[in-house]
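Subject: mismatched residue count in predicted assembly?

I count 808 residues in my input, but I want to confirm that the predicted structure covers every chain. Input:
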Amino acid sequence: MFQKILVAQGGGPTAVINQSLAGIALEARKHSGINTVYGAFHGVRGIINQDLVDLSKETRENLEAVAETPAAALGSTRDKPDRKYCEEIFRVVRAHGIGAFFYIGGNDSADTVRIVSEAARADNYPLRCIHVPKTIDNDLMVNDHTPGFPSAARFVAQAFMGANLDNAALPGVYLGVVMGRHAGFLTAAAALARTDSGDGPHLIYLPERPFSLDSFYQDVKRTMEKHGRCVIAISEGIADAKGTPIATTLATKVEKDAHGNVELGGGALADYLSKAIKDTLGLKRVRGDTFGYLQRSFAGCVSDVDQREAREAGEKGVQFALAEGRDGSVTIHRQSTGGYSAGYKFTALEELAGKTKHMSDAFIAPNGSDVTPAFCDYLAPLLGSGLPKMARLGRQPVAKIKTD
Amino acid sequence: MFQKILVAQGGGPTAVINQSLAGIALEARKHSGINTVYGAFHGVRGIINQDLVDLSKETRENLEAVAETPAAALGSTRDKPDRKYCEEIFRVVRAHGIGAFFYIGGNDSADTVRIVSEAARADNYPLRCIHVPKTIDNDLMVNDHTPGFPSAARFVAQAFMGANLDNAALPGVYLGVVMGRHAGFLTAAAALARTDSGDGPHLIYLPERPFSLDSFYQDVKRTMEKHGRCVIAISEGIADAKGTPIATTLATKVEKDAHGNVELGGGALADYLSKAIKDTLGLKRVRGDTFGYLQRSFAGCVSDVDQREAREAGEKGVQFALAEGRDGSVTIHRQSTGGYSAGYKFTALEELAGKTKHMSDAFIAPNGSDVTPAFCDYLAPLLGSGLPKMARLGRQPVAKIKTD
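Triage response: the counts match. Full output below for your records.
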């Protein structure tokens, strides 16, 4: 067993990553064998820099308040450690007599945990290495879904609920670009904004299907003819049939035009697709937004289901570390018993480290510009309680009168 | 007196514009003289097209549900009627025997009400014309603030609360571009995200002060040196000393570079300022977001103070229409009695029609890149109850140990 544990947070922050941190720190207090919980500032970088804090000295009250706060309370990092970096992590861990290492993060973080685990075994040092899942992209293998995704999905759904009504009030084309370079789950969440027939998003484009500008124009044209307006959810990662991201194609085209003076930034895909629709279809009112960092960091939009599961994933991490005689990753699974509930398993790191899950065919509509009811059924229970309700007027018409 | 009234909504939708609609429709039911409430679809355009609905047939329950729903339930319009258009409005109003016209909107809508009022008087037709205030820009004269602004301000504050923590977790420069072409109130609301010393936004740029790229670079550099990171709130309407919008300057520059092939869209200012910081200061991690439509239409981020006041502004509109022997605009005023409370007055249309209010000098910090405590005191009570709380770890450091 181990007395001292270390926890760190990696990758992009989420609305609930601190729930997992609190889950680990507070669960550890229930086990008399564990007397110290260290935290590393800014992920693995904080370990090699020995930039550590003692979470054992935090009050339960403050840990609970931090759990409700978005973004990584310990700080995060984009470092993707190689073997040498991982061996350095291991040296610090050993020097401090740490017996278990918990890393909350995505598939890169799982890979770091895997390499640190190997370094410890090669040195015959008894270190328990645990990966706790987190990513708004929802692209971790084995997991039914990952903590952080449901809250980000809720933000996207609420954003499109409002954007749909705004677009109905002032008709035209609205295009929202959503995060997710390789997996379309977060973009697909826009479908959950629909509460009535005719509601947008009317079109949803995912990186899992090749994107064609010609089909896009036709889709928008058809939607405008049918509804007199068009709301579109589009993944930042859409790519053409050859796999080249559309954003890259646009950037190359423009950079060439501008003799290298122009470099496209975060809002470029939305801006250029908006302009393309305007020019090609001759439409006046076309607006494009890029949801950017708001979708992962907005304070005050969180799924309570996500909060509970992120907490539990941290708690289970400590329990698995104590009960299982091996290293691994906490994975979330949907229970098959009626209604929605989650269960947790302990999975070998190799099964998800460095790998990416994509949306299954069963979740993508055959026309390639929408999701299926199966996807909505999958996501709906994850969004949590208290979603805003969208109401409409009954619209009893008044007969026209001849005016002079 | 009048038996039949007509209501319409104009300009950009807000989170609470339907509260004013419900306020008018439900208040009218309390007065036995009024037996019919019509609504016009898509603002004044719905009047000249006689695209009217009978709101008297809506249930109270549904009107209450619609009141909680963002965006204009009757639809809106960007039409800015001239005298001829207003005379056409008046002809439809007269044909339907309407005795009072309520228009919920900003300063352009107030101007429409003013011209319709004149047309009715010129024709000796007894029409009571009432403007009910609404705008997220908070730029209506006479008013202490306007319905719609507090909820949009809350969105901006919550966005920067999260963006600040995200930036603290992964340090660098973060720049958020906020709506408001001429008035900086909504951008200034970012200041309310701060809950601790060192919190961002560290810099706030408003259209009320000339923007200089050189000062901007120096401000960012100084902030990076002090905090190791920098969060910036910037108005889409920032302009140089000559009054030329920076977005226009950038667009012209780029269009020339690209021989007319490049047209800048909604995200361009954020993208170009981000790139400029990167290039000029040699910084790696610079991110720019444009809040776009989310800040006015996001479902589920609303100030309860704003909801109550928007409702009351509609109710007062009906009361003033019945009690005052003149046309006018409902204006909101801050009561001087201890604590925060709002009062309502009936103001001549000429005092605000077509005019724009800017942030007063007392609200802008002398250095031009921040707001004053007076502004925070002004805005804080408007944001409403239940703002998310941001908690931090106590950060008890662990002593470093020499590793081999």
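Confidence is low (pLDDT under 50) at residues 255-264 of chain B. Marking this ticket as 'not a bug'.
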